[in-house]
Write a structure and sequence with these properties.
Number of strands: 40
Number of domains: 3
Strand content: 35-45%
Structural class: mainly beta
Number of helices: 8
Shape: globular
CATH superfamily of the largest domain: Alkaline phosphatase D (PhoD)
CATH architecture of the largest domain: 4-Layer Sandwich
């Protein structure tokens, strides 16, 4: 009796909730068959079934056929990948970072294989071949291929102790991408996939979709909730329903239409009663089955003495799915989660970067962002969140948005966006559509929307700003000769007219800062000074970093002048953590700034100033006065560690590289802010926690 039997219907891009397509853009369903664009590492993982460690036999079967004529038929193959495992125990880690994999199937030249063992018989791979892999308790494996009256077979002995892990379909070829370089497009087609045997474990809760996750905010009596879905077809249901549990009955609140490019449904519910926790669920019908995703809209804790804010940034992906770190955050149970940029990187999930055509690039982005949602959805469904896209989220190493224009010659340093505006809109919708309405909603160049806004929650007033979108590109403002002069005289870099936040956001902050509140908090992607001294794979000293908000200096001065010194500023971006007080005209006359390290640091950075102490008064490389109160640095030598596949497990690599996150506890009664900087493996960085009275007199 089959434990799993495929039931693919119709023609669609998303294969279904029981599967993870690696990558999304290269797998689809056509007329009831699964079709794979063939290239390196292409796998369709079966999420709901896996090989367990208990002894037992199992059988995998599928019908395959080749579509196309490969130049290297012996190197193009289809069939099964199994016993996929990574260095971390979670099955999701092996969707990307597997270190162990076994393969069996058919090559394009018609020969069957199990590992390196080949059949003597040859079948026609362009005609349907029924493959059946049978593995006995002792690891004896036999693969048969049937094609009408013709049959081929191959046998091999596998290590029975190694037969545990994920199960997948395989579509392998030697090239990295399935298209381009005038190479023929090769597809494998699959039908009738069966999995059975006592060795197979069944895990029905491992499905992902069609309701992937939700993210929401509650501010000023308005609930905004975003439901994220996979790409849908025109024949699919196009609406999602939001319900609330009231008086022990589910009450419909609203329907929302799925926006097709971003595959999201946005609910905006004014007049929300925020005095009590409210259970909610979103409902969606897909292929005749009803799906639900449930969570809690927390009450607005305005009457509580304190508010706890989680601050996170920069996940380089090698510790996916961050089981240890997400578990720590769950135990600390923050009231509000703030993800301040680089939720993904260009290479997140493997398979490089797809920049065009736009439809494939969109699928590439969505797949990468799904990793973020899968990690954090159990926390996101039950508390409000702020999510801000940064440079890597929009597939740029750095970004100077220059008012939304296209980057001249496609070069980011010239100022502008490298990717097309409709694609940028997908990124912004998936990450920011649930934020409160923009305070100044006029779009920028190319019709790119804005999201800078004000969020009031728990009696704390947050300003959410976009410190990348309006910033001038350095190559547009600083001639090469002046750039060289700036290494010795940073004031020379303060180009006249260069923007940081832009006039619209400066006006917003000036108004916002004057409004009374127990705490005023600015949320941005990066810090308003140069708060690292060493950078790069060798952690060499770095003099200038035009990507941080230390530049342009006049724009930085205008932004901080608009803020009351009692304002708190939270940021990420730099892969190291620090707590400091900004100085403008004098020491300590500016706001407090708290920058968190990455949850999985990639590009190494550190705050290692000359001298014995990392705390005290310093002048950064742009001439700004800063008072460092505490800093979170990587361990010396950790920049040389291999992130995946080395002798140190990925989660320990992250710990040594100074990865972690921040918790900020705001006591509205005492006006004390406590800053905690948590290491990836537990415990706080040296110098933390640090409690500061934001109303105290400063020298």
């Amino acid at each position: 009796m089959s434990l799993f039997q495929s039931d693919w219907k119709g023609t669609r891009h998303w294969v279904g909730p029981e599967f993870w397509a690696a990558p999304l853009q290269d797998w689809s369903v056509e007329n009831g068959e699964v079709v794979a664009l063939t290239a390196k590492g292409r796998l369709l993982h079966l999420l709901t079934h896996a090989l367990t460690e208990k002894p037992g036999a199992f059988t995998l079967s599928v019908t395959v056929r080749l579509d196309g004529t490969p130049a290297q038929p012996s190197a193009v193959r289809a069939g099964f990948a199994f016993a996929l495992r990574g260095q971390l125990a979670d099955f999701r880690h092996a969707l990307w970072h597997y270190q162990h994999k076994l393969e069996a199937g058919i090559r394009a030249d018609g020969k069957l294989f199990i590992g390196e063992s080949l059949s003597a018989e040859v079948l026609d791979a362009k005609l349907p071949v029924a493959l059946k892999l049978s593995v006995a308790v002792d690891g004896t494996a036999t693969l048969t291929g049937t094609q009408g009256e013709k049959m081929a077979s191959v046998a091999a002995k596998l290590d029975a102790a190694a037969l545990h892990g994920n199960i997948a379909l395989l579509a392998e070829a030697p090239r990295n991408q399935p298209e381009g370089n005038n190479q023929p497009i090769i597809r494998w087609r699959y039908s009738n996939w069966h999995v059975e045997g006592e060795k197979v474990g069944v895990f029905p809760k491992r499905t992902f979709g069609p309701l992937l996750w939700t993210q929401y905010t509650l501010s000023g009596g308005v609930l905004k909730l975003l439901a994220l879905l996979p790409p849908l077809e025109k024949s699919d249901t196009q609406t999602v329903r939001l319900e609330a549990l009231r008086n022990d009955r589910w009450e419909k609140l609203s329907d929302a239409t799925v926006e097709p490019l971003a595959s999201t449904a946005l609910f905006r519910i004014p007049g929300w009663k925020a005095s009590a926790d409210t259970a909610y669920r979103v409902a969606y019908t897909w292929q005749g089955k009803d799906y639900l995703w449930e969570g809690t809209i927390r009450r607005d804790p305005v009457e509580r003495e304190s508010l706890t804010v989680g601050v996170l940034s920069c996940d380089h992906g090698y510790v996916f799915p961050q089981t240890r770190l997400t578990g720590m955050v769950a135990k600390q149970n923050p009231d509000l989660l703030c993800f301040l940029g680089d939720q993904i990187y260009e290479n997140y999930g493997g398979f490089g970067i797809i920049r065009k055509p736009t439809d494939r690039a969109t699928l590439d982005y969505l797949r990468k962002y799904w990793h973020f949602g899968w990690m954090w959805r159990e926390l996101l469904k039950d508390r409000p969140s702020v999510i801000l896209p940064d440079d890597h989220d929009v597939f740029q190493g750095n970004i100077w948005g220059q008012g939304g224009r296209p980057a001249p010659n496609g070069k980011q340093e010239n100022g502008g966006y490298v990717m097309p505006p409709e694609w940028v809109g997908v990124v912004q919708r998936t990450q920011t559509a649930h934020l409160p309405d923009p305070v100044d909603p006029a779009p920028v160049a190319q019709g790119i929307g804005v999201y800078f806004t004000q969020l009031t929650y728990g009696g704390v007033d947050f300003a959410v700003i976009e410190d990348r979108k309006f910033k001038t590109g350095p190559d547009d403002a600083i001639p090469a000769a002046l750039r060289q002069q700036g290494k010795s005289d940073p004031k020379a870099l303060d180009a006249p007219g260069a923007q940081l936040l832009g006039e619209r956001q400066e006006r917003f902050l000036a108004r916002w800062s004057k409004e009374p509140a127990p705490f005023k908090v600015v949320l941005s992607q990066t810090i308003f000074c140069h708060a690292t001294t060493h950078s790069g794979p060798q952690l060499n000293p770095i003099k200038l970093d035009l990507d941080c908000n230390a530049w342009p200096q006049s724009g930085r001065q205008r932004a901080l002048t608009a803020l009351n010194p009692s304002v708190l500023m939270l940021a990420g971006d730099q892969h190291s953590g620090i707590l400091l007080r900004h100085g403008m005209d004098n020491w300590d006359d500016g706001p407090l700034a708290f920058m968190v390290p990455g949850t999985a640091n990639g590009w190494p950075r550190a705050w290692w100033p000359e001298g014995a102490s990392i705390t005290g008064r310093f002048t950064d490389s742009f001439g700004h006065k800063i008072t460092v109160l505490a800093a979170a640095n990587p361990e010396k030598g950790s920049n040389l560690l291999k992130e995946v596949g080395g002798t140190v497990p990925p989660d320990e690599v992250a710990h040594k590289k100074g990865s972690g996150y921040g918790i900020v506890r705001l006591n509205k009664k005492t006006r004390e802010a406590t800053f905690e900087m948590w290491r990836h493996g537990g415990g706080q960085f040296e110098g933390f926690p640090k409690t500061i009275n934001v109303g105290e007199k400063r020298a």
